[in-house]
Amino acid sequence: MELLVTIIVLSLLFDYINGFHDAANSIATIVSTKVLTPFQAVLWAAFFNFVAFFIAKYIIGEFGIANTVSKTVFEQFITLPVILSGIIAAIIWNLSTWWLGIPSSSSHTLIGGFAGAAIMASGFKAIQSVVIIKIAAFIFLAPVIGMIMAFFLTILALYICRKVNPHKAIAWFKKLQLVSSALFSIGHGLNDSQKVMGIIAAAMIAAHPMGLGMGIKSIEDLPNWVAFACFTMISFGTMSGGWKIVKTMGTRITKVTPLEGMIAETAGALTLYLTEYLKIPVSTTHTITGAIIGVGATKRLSSVRWGVTKNLLVAWILTIPVSALLAALIYLIVSVFV
Question: Model confidence over 212-225: pLDDT tens digits?
Answer without folding.
Answer: 677 788 778 888 89
